[in-house]
Amino acid sequence: MPEKLNLSNLKPAQARKDRKRVGRGLGSGKGRYSTRGLKGQKARSGSHKMRAGFEGGQMPIYMRLGKQRGPYSKDAMPMGPHRTRTVAVNVRDLERFDAGSEVTPESLAERGLIRNTKYDLKILGHGDLSKQLSVNAHNFSKSAREKIEKAGGSITWLRGEPEPRKPKRRLRAEIPQAEPEPPETEEEAAESPESDQSEATEEPESSSDADQTSEE
Fold first, then answer.
1. How do residues 52-61 score in pLDDT, each as one tens digit?
2. Contacts of range 136-144, beta carbons closer than 8 Å, 24 or more positions apart
3. Is 90 exceeded by the pLDDT of residue 152?
4. Residue 153 CA: distances (Å) to CA of 127, 129, 133, 142
C-alpha cells in the first residue's frame, strides 16, 4: 500500500468485474440485437424503468385479488389496525405454575408457552385447572373464566373487560293482541243502548220508503 493515498494511486480493494459491453459487433456475441431479443416492449429504451407490479397493461394481481377490511382512502387516514392477531393459551397449560402465583404474558413467555408479548393473549378453556391463580390476559373465553374462578383464582383484563356485542338484528316487539270479548247474552243485548240506536237509525229509512210508495 502506498505511503500517501491520493487520486493517482486510488484503486478498488478487490478486482472488479467489467460491465457487459453490448452492441460491439456480431463477433463479440453481444451484437445485433444486443441481448434484447426481437422487438417488443423490453427491446425498447426505457423499458426497464417500469414500476413494480406492472404486468404489461393487464389487470395487476393486487387489483384482481379481494380486498381486506378497512378504509384505505387518503381522507380516512390515519386508521388503526383492522386485522389483529391473538395468541391462545389453554387453562391446562397453567398447571405448571405454582398455586397462588400471578400469571402474566411475560411469565408465559419465560416458561415458553408463548414466543413473545407482541400479540394479545387469550386464555381458552381446554383442559382442567386445579390451582388458585391470578391470571392477567387481554381476553378470556367463557369456559376459561368459569374454570379459573371455580379453582379459586381471579382474572384481570389488561385492556378492560370488553362490552357485550349488540345483536345485528333487532327483534321486533310482539304486538299485544286484544282479549276477545265474551259473547253477550240475550238480556244484555236487549238492555244495551246500541240496539236502541240501531232501531232509531232504521226508522227514517222506513219512513222514506213510505213516502216513495205514496208518491207512486
1. 889 989 999 9
2. 136/102, 136/103, 136/104, 136/105, 137/89, 137/103, 137/105, 138/86, 139/86, 144/90, 144/91
3. yes
4. 16, 10, 5, 15
